[in-house]
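Figure 6 in text form: structure in, sequence out.
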């Protein structure tokens, strides 16, 4: 048995004073709330449901070895499970990337692949963000079925206003695939229709979607007022103002999931990289195309949690948005909670939310060094 020496922990999503003990033999949490003079906070391992790449690896062009390398690097930042996310590209490349992610799903070591998040190609050309417009298309049930059959697709983002979108929602729901609304110019009515058919997620609220107004609330209004919908949020200064983060949490704190929308440039120095067929450059940690369009992020998920706290979100709410809330979408995955009997995937943070230690199934994991001391190896760049 090993004591973590913390002052408290988030147990089942709620703060509980006292130390945590883990059973190193079983890899499970043995006890919580133990008397201790310790310092710091224990939280469950983090879950990232939208991440395009990391540590020089672009999941759209990665091989199995790349997935392993990215998974190990993510584990060193505190991520225990993730959905490799594929932006819009040629169907043949997407099909191959899905199959490769499936091969990496059972490889031990590092963060676990939960399944693939297809962010496209059934998105609006009016709100493409960084997605190549030439590869976007209206919902096509034949192509969609080919994509779902290619490997472990667990989430699909679509624009609910497109012709055939509701039928595609129905197909995904029948197949057990989570449907998310995003990259869309949909009205609230079109979004409500998709939700009524089983869409249950929103892809990066506020970003690449019809803006909210008092007479035309769009996806934002529908998302914040439908209790059955879980809302993805990119909490970094480039994507959202503090007021937008506050609005989302005040309206739907228990439904917010923090995501990174990370890129191959995550964990790497500034420079030139690729996201599928898209070239972009990173300067001062901010990724943009040549025309100035934002291209995901280079933050870690713990960075997102910390930023949410820095702008005034309660620690418990911010941490739950990266642990308990995304875990609810995967009830059998044994992730996102820290109760006796749960897997001992645990992070220990200091009072400033800095990472002190990581345990993966009760075994210590070397955590990522600060950016200033990282190796200046670029990894997969353009």
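Output sequence:
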């Amino acid at each position: 048995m090993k004591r973590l020496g913390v002052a408290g922990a988030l147990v089942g999503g709620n703060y509980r004073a006292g130390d945590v003990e883990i059973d190193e033999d079983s890899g499970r949490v043995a006890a919580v709330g133990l008397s201790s003079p310790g310092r710091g906070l224990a939280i469950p391992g983090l879950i990232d449901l939208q991440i395009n790449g990391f540590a020089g690896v672009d999941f759209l062009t990665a091989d199995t070895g790349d997935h392993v390398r990215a998974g190990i690097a993510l584990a060193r930042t505190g991520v225990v499970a993730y959905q490799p996310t594929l932006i819009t590209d040629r169907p043949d490349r997407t099909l191959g990337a899905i199959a490769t992610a499936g091969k990496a799903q059972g490889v031990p070591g590092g963060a676990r692949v939960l399944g693939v998040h297809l962010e496209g190609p059934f998105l609006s050309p009016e709100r493409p963000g960084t997605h190549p417009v030439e590869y976007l298309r209206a919902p096509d049930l034949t192509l969609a079925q080919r994509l779902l059959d290619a490997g472990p697709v667990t989430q699909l983002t679509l624009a609910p206003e497109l012709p055939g979108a509701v039928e595609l929602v129905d197909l995904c729901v029948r197949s057990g695939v989570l449907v998310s609304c995003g990259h869309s110019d949909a009205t609230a009515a079109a979004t409500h229709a998709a939700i009524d058919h089983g869409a249950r997620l929103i892809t990066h609220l506020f970003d690449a979607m019809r803006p909210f107004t008092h007479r035309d609330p769009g996806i934002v209004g529908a998302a914040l007022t439908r209790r059955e919908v879980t809302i993805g949020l990119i909490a970094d200064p480039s994507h959202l103002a503090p007021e937008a983060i506050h609005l989302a949490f005040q309206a739907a704190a228990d439904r917010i999931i923090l995501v990174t929308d990370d890129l191959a440039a995550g964990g790497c120095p500034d420079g030139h990289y690729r996201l599928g067929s898209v070239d972009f450059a990173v300067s001062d940690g901010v990724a943009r195309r040549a025309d100035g369009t934002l291209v995901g992020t280079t933050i870690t998920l713990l960075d997102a949690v910390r930023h949410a706290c820095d702008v005034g979100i309660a620690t418990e709410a911010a941490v739950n948005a990266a642990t308990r809330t995304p875990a609810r979408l995967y009830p059998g995955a044994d992730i996102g909670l820290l109760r006796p009997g749960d897997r001992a995937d645990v992070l220990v943070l200091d009072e400033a939310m800095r990472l002190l230690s990581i345990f993966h199934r009760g075994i210590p994991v070397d955590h990522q060094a600060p950016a200033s001391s990282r190796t200046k190896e670029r990894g997969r760049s353009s």
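Caption detail: The longest helix spans residues 91-104.
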